[in-house]
Amino acid sequence: MATHTDEKLELLKRVPLLSGLGKRDIEEVGRLAEEIDLGAEHVLMREGGSGSEFFVIIDGTVRIERGGVKIRSLGPGDFLGEIALVDDGPRTATATTESPAKLLVVGHREFHSLMELFPTIQTCVLQALASRVRNLDPAAD
Q1: Residue 3 pLDDT > 80, yes or no?
Q2: Domain boundaries along the sequence of the chain
Q3: Which residues contact 114 (CB under 8 A, 6 or more apart)?
Q4: Helices and strands, number each (H, E), in the chain
Q5: If you classify domain 4-136 with CATH, what class do you get?
Q6: Separation of alpha carbons 107 and 130, rounded Å
């Protein structure tokens, strides 16, 4: 019978953000990330609020809203919360679970450890960040 740790590592291996990591690296990410289960309509973050957590969606969907308008839905393998952690600024959107969801949560200090320890994760996060800026800011080049 698999232990909870084994199940968590199996979930981590399936996350595209972590796909370039080996077994030992996945175990390190597992030590830095907490797995949580939430019901539908749980607010993960509010636009304008302070940010101290990074989320990776394992199962379920999360609605992203800016100014009360839905921008998009995120699903398994997607991540959110990196903008406020990269620049220590306020949250740029409100994120709410649309369905029951299983997520990995990484705190501020652990997020920066992940970015330093694993260049592949840092590259993925920075590429996603650039893409989000381009999609939201018509003046971005």
Answers
A1: no
A2: 4-136
A3: 29, 32, 106, 121, 122
A4: 5, 8
A5: mainly beta
A6: 22
